[in-house]
Amino acid sequence: MKIKLLKGDITKLVVDGIVNAANTSLLGGGGVDGAIHRAGGKLILEDCVAIRNRQGGCKVGEAVITTAGNLSAKKVIHTVGPRWNNNQSNEPQKLESCYLNVLKLAEENQLSSLAIPNISTGIYRFPKGKAAQIAIKTIQAHKGNSLQEVIFVCYDEENYQLYQNILDA
Ligand code: ADP
How remote is the C-alpha of 96 from its chain's centroid? Predict the structure, then answer.
């Protein structure tokens, strides 16, 4: 499985799957979540509402999959990252669990390429360096089955530099 690094807007990518940093309500929010719902249109929200009605949203560290609506992707995998709480609430384990559950859903749905944003490092304020290490370690440990390519998509320069340094090391 190839691992790539890109800087830019994740909604513009042509890949099988796009990962969303959602919240437990699955009803959309700010940051990348807002961007994905705006660009993908109402079909994504309709799927999210159906999941909510079935299972009551999505817990921190877990993931669900929906259509990608108008995006140039087949599926969106929504995962809920932990809100940083000074390392008092198992945030690193919860963030790792996000990546593991995203990978599981991607494989179960036979996705071959997947774009992932820097989960929890925006509104949820997880320290970016720590988050990058967890993200890269967890993705690198995965033996791709249908997954051939994972693209880390950084929106801000700080995350991009952090990822580049770890991936180059
Ligand atoms: P969280 O609540 O999990 O912190 P945010 O959406 O606030 O989620 O931030 C997660 C990351 O997504 C941040 O690093 C932010 O810079 C980034 N981001 C925001 N918009 C986009 C976008 N359109 N494409 C890719 N990444 C984005």
Answer: 11
